[in-house]
Amino acid sequence: MIENPDVIVVGAGLAGLVATHELVKAGRRVLVLDQENRANLGGQAFWSLGGLFFVDSPEQRRLGVKDSLELALQDWFGSAGFDREDEDHWARQWARAYVEFAAGEKRQYLYDLGLRVTPVVGWAERGGVAADGHGNSVPRFHLTWGTGPEVVRVFLEPVLAAEQRGQVGFAFRHQVDELIVEGDAVTGVRGSVLEASTAERGVASSRTVVNQFEFRAAAVIVSSGGIGHNHELIRRNWPADRLGPCPEHMISGVPAHVDGRMLGITEAAGGRIVNRDRMWHYTEGIHNWDPIWPDHAIRIIPGPSSLWFDANGKRMTAPAFPGFDTNETMKQILATGYDYSWFVLDQSIIEKEFALSGSEQNPDITGKDLKLALKSRVAKGAPGPVEAFKQHGVDFVVADNLADLVAGMNKIARGPQLDLADLERQIVARDRDVAHKFSKDAQLMAINNARRFLGDKVRVASPHRILDPAHGPLIAVRLNILTRKTLGGLQTNLDSQVIRADGTPFPGLYAAGEVAGFGGGGVHGYNALEGTFLGGCIFSGRNAGRALGRVRLG
Ligand SMILES: Cc1cc2nc3c(=O)[nH]c(=O)nc-3n(C[C@H](O)[C@H](O)[C@H](O)COP(=O)(O)OP(=O)(O)OC[C@H]3O[C@@H](n4cnc5c(N)ncnc54)[C@H](O)[C@@H]3O)c2cc1C
Fold first, then answer.
1. Do the strands 168-172 and 219-222 form a parallel or antiparallel pair, or are they unpaired?
2. Best of 8, 21, 44 for a ligand 1 pocket test (most atoms within 8 Å of beta carbon)
3. What span is annotated as the signal peptide, if there is one (predicted)?
């Protein structure tokens, strides 16, 4: 613990650690509170894949990708679709500043801390309708060598060194329940000390209260994460008018501590929440056969070749292809009245194209093990974790022929039974279009386009007939809705100061990371370009820390 801190940080996830790192550099004394134990330092970022959005990077250029700030801004604003004058007021400014950061200083800032990325840039969220609409015109998803744990490490190490020097104190199992407001300003926090926990990282911990606490400081930074594990709050805020009815069955892509409580607590103190209805949940969720947290879901990050069918067995239409347009796909799925869909693919596609999001699902890159990475990604066979899901996952069906595959799918369907003849007709039609170069099938055209990018040449299976036994066995995956990111949140100005209902900054109160919609209360608008969340935590945490390093405190 630390006496008389200058700043209190609520939440020791990535945003909180980045802010603390900047505060330490500015000579501030910092108290960091977290409701979880020390084993959970780094929060969600530890579990993340470490995908980072950079614009016009050396890695892109080496792969022949021509990117620019102008193109990235066009993509960002085309995806965001900001349309709310008041709620998007700061978000628009954050968006421009963040894209400029991603095209400029971001890479060097992280490089100087020791972070490196792999040479293969991924092409996430490709969009697919119009040049000025949603999606990345070019590949921009840079994978951290060491994945999420490495992103955490580069900020955590200097913070732990400051703890050793007595400049930073941690109070774990301290759950903030209230912000103290005196006069016009936030001057501290109150809350509950939770019983000690030896739970391993990510495992849900007890909420038994053993004591109360109160701490004061000249400023408080809220960096408590989003609402991703709070399904009740997700249901309350679900944008049914835009996406369709809220899914009945949802599985959790984030640990239980992502509970969203601090949003309500900050609002009760006078902070303003905006864009509550904007969220970023995935449509390619599978139940983890080896779960760590309750309802643990893993997201498949798919290449473009799997055929995607809705619950009725109808092939989804452009741009609802794997990895193209998350919200449009969500809309098409929910329009059926069911909350799941199907991938149909084969062994050749799973081997080349299936990646799983999460540091623990990528032991080769997380462990910075080049030999293992080459073996698992280039050698024959699917990577080990993917193969494990194929064997043990409740959402997977594997069969040597389509009749058996459909019979297996019908056993695990939560809705209508699929019609073998209808599915076969659609797959055969698509397979016929593989036989020549000039396909009219929009997905095949998109695959041909993808394969012109060197990075996708390696990752995308060469187009072939799905029903060709040489590429078998056939595989079907029941895809569920996986809850993950909160795009709205506490409105903040460019210094990460929380804004009040009257539009003025709240003295003494700052917010960073997912709780602040990754900056401004919703830097992404309605849609994300991917790899932008860790970066949003870094940018907004940095701004908070630097702003509080500049001003006179106390
Ligand atoms: C599996 C997975 C893969 C991902 N992959 C990527 C990726 O490749 N690229 C990308 O950009 N993003 C990715 N993300 C998203 C990204 O990791 C998160 O958005 C980001 O880490 C959120 O960080 P944060 O600091 O805002 O919040 P969190 O990490 O949620 O940390 C908040 C902390 O606050 C604490 N807290 C909450 N309330 C209280 C309270 N009342 N009192 C005290 N403490 C409290 C929590 O215990 C927690 O430790 C991924 C996320 C996951 C889960």
1. unpaired
2. 44
3. none
Q: What is the pLDDT of residue 239?
A: 98
Give SS3 for 478. strand
Pocket of ligand 1, beta carbon within 6 A: 10-16, 33-36, 40, 43-45, 47-51, 175-176, 223-225, 253-254, 257-258, 261-262, 357-358, 485, 513-514, 531-535, 537
Q: Where are the domains of the chain?
A: 7-225+487-550, 284-482
Q: Do domains 7-225+487-550 and 284-482 have the same CATH topology?
A: no
Pocket test for ligand 1, best of 266, 534, 540, 542 (most atoms within 8 A of CB): 534
For 83-111, write each residue's pLDDT tens digit.
999 999 999 999 999 999 999 999 999 99
One-letter identity of residue 328? E
**Tell me: the pLDDT tens digits for 375-400?**
777 777 888 999 999 999 999 999 99
310-320: average pLDDT: 97
Mean pLDDT of the chain: 96
Rounded to whole angstroms, how far apart are CA atoms 230 and 61? 41
Number of the ligand 1 atom closest to the C-alpha atom of 175:
42
Correct CATH for 7-225+487-550 of 3.50.50.60, 1.10.3720.10, 3.40.1260.10, 3.60.20.10 = 3.50.50.60
Ligand 1 atom 24 nearest Cα:
225
Separation between Cα atoms, residue 316 and residue 322, nearest integer Å: 10
User: How much distance in Å is there from the Cα of 100 to the middle of ligand 1?
Assistant: 23
Q: Which CATH class is domain 284-482?
A: alpha beta
Query: With bands split at pLDDT 50, 70 and 90, how would you rate the model's confidence at 405?
Result: very high
* Interatomic CA distance for residues 45 and 317, integer angstroms: 33
**Ligand 1: centre distance to CA 493 (Å):** 21
Answer yes or no: is pLDDT of 459 > 90: no
In tens, the pLDDT along 25-51 reads: 999 999 999 999 999 999 999 999 999
- Top mutation candidate among 48, 258, 483, 538 for ligand 1, by most atoms within 8 Å of CB: 48
Atom of ligand 1 nearest to the CA of 17: 25
Q: Give 47 Cα–ligand 1 centroid separation in angstroms.
A: 9
pLDDT of residue 2: 86
CA 249, 255, 259, 260 torsion-angle sign? negative
Q: What pTM was computed for the model?
A: 0.97
Q: Nearest Cα to 133, choosing from 74, 68, 53, 66? A: 74
